[in-house]
Design goal:
47% of the residues lie in helices and 23% in strands. By secondary structure, it is α+β, with helices and mostly antiparallel strands. The protein has two domains: 2-63; 70-158, no CATH class. The strands form two sheets. Strands 1-2-3-4 form a four-stranded antiparallel beta sheet. It has a four-stranded mixed beta sheet with strand order 5-7-8-6. Helix 1 packs antiparallel against helix 2.
Amino acid sequence: MEFSYALGLPRQLVLAVTAVSLVEIPVAHLLLARWNPSVAIVVTAASILFIAYVLLDWVVAARRPLRLDGGSLTVNRGLRRPVVVPTAGIVDARTVPSSDNLPRGAARTVYAGEANLLIVLDAATAEALGRDAVAVAADDPRALVAALRAVIERPATGVESPS
């Protein structure tokens, strides 16, 4: 199953930074070139690469959903390495009102904005991943919580009791 997190992305912020950069980069280049042409080239190249990274990261984040399959939840985060959480190590999944007051040791995988879902891990998984919980910003947190709870409860309901 796939779950989107693209609606919460700061589209206006990314586009505003890009628009301001289209004006700022050439002006900064001209001002720096009067002082030192080599520095102007380095700063301009770094600025262009940074804006390209921000735009590409935003596009990739919008196209790589959260994925629940094959015994794991893959939390994609744009161009950054995804966090893969084994579903066997998930103790609880619940919605949270914001990123405020998340438990200490919770990994904030939020691309931008507020987390709306917290995935609590068991001790072994927490130690293996180096985090006690994973905070996520899903477009439909209730659907993801329902899917995670179904996966968490499946092993308990799938075992037949001896007669």
